[in-house]
Amino acid sequence: GKLGIALVGLGGYSGGQLAPALQETQYCYLAGIVTGTPSKAVEWKQRYNIPDRNIYNYQTFDKIKDNKDIDIVYVVLPNALHAEYVIKAAKAGKHVICEKPMAITVEDCDRMIAACKEAGKMLSIGYRLHFEPHNMEIMRIGQKKQFGSIKRLIAENGFSGAGGWRLDKQLAGGGPLMDVGIYCVQGCRYTTGIEPVAVWAQEGPKTDPDKFRSVEESLTWQMEFPNGIIAECKTSYAQSMNVLRAEAENGWAELSPAFAYGGINGKTSKGDLNFGQVNQQARQMDDFAQAIVNNRPTPVPGEMGRQDVKILQAIYQAMQSGERTTI
Ligand code: NAD
After folding, report:
1. Domain edge (last residue) among 86, 108, 125
2. Is residue 322 lining ligand 1, measured as CB closer than 6 Å?
3. Where is the GFO/IDH/MocA-like oxidoreductase domain (predicted)?
4. 211 is catalytic
5. Which residue of 22, 127, 191, 263 is 20 to 30 Å from 16, comparing CA positions?
6. Is the pTM value of this prediction over 0.90?
7. Is 296 exposed, middle or buried (0-12, 13-18, 19+ CB in 10 A)?
8. Cα 175 to ligand 1 centroid, rounded to whole Å
């Protein structure tokens, strides 16, 4: 049968993307929910036919260990709360999916990885683009050097209209870099298949200093990879941007939008990419369910999430110091 997933935190991403995706999955299904809001429990129970025994709040969460319907706990809370709930889920004997960014410190990532290892449970991060065909193609083009060695990368991701916990450093760990700039870091890593060695970063001006009291409004940064590859990156909570471009010796590839839930568009120097659109989250969750059943590694493990958090921390350090910061 299908593996049962419990979503923890029924906000925008759970309600708008994950629950609908779980209506399309073949190897897992929406078995349970964890919510602090009683009215959401009632609404989700009716909409998704969730039995009372699979509905938890944050006080009863630990009882999930006795529930055989739940195989996987999916943590979809504000960033700073990921560590606590991933560790609780592992201690309850469940496999875990954790949303990006994995946590707000590398130390938290280490504790999360250790807890899952100790429990003998798998941990994956919600990196949906690893299952999106255009992004998979730019990985192939870059890693297999289809246009020769990459020289330069451009990665930009921003939107306007962020609110709530995303503007609170305590809960978010930072501003647009933590939330959407992380896709630029990911994109450059999966396009090259190698790791950046150093970064520089420049905070943008605050056009709304009151709104952006505790986090950056925008940020540009550069990542230096081995072999002289330079990535030029931008993120913002004041400007829409969505592009991943790789320039190589004998050609180029560009996705725009690159990181959206759908409508991904790809071009290369040899012509357009036409792969059609998929339900990224359904593929991501199905892949994790199959990894569990077949006892094979996930392509998006906790270690990958940890490396991104490590790079994000180096970018903030470079932003503060104004200096080249090694990773
Ligand atoms: P959201 O604000 O819409 O939802 C957050 C949920 O957490 C809400 O239901 C809120 O009630 C609950 N919550 C529990 N404790 C809370 C607390 N102490 N403070 C504030 N809220 C609390 O946020 P979201 O957009 O659903 O994001 C949730 C997570 O999912 C984040 O880590 C985010 O980065 C990630 N996310 C990932 C993607 C993706 O494409 N992979 C997209 C959106 C969000």
Report:
1. 125
2. no
3. 143-241
4. no
5. 191
6. yes
7. exposed
8. 14
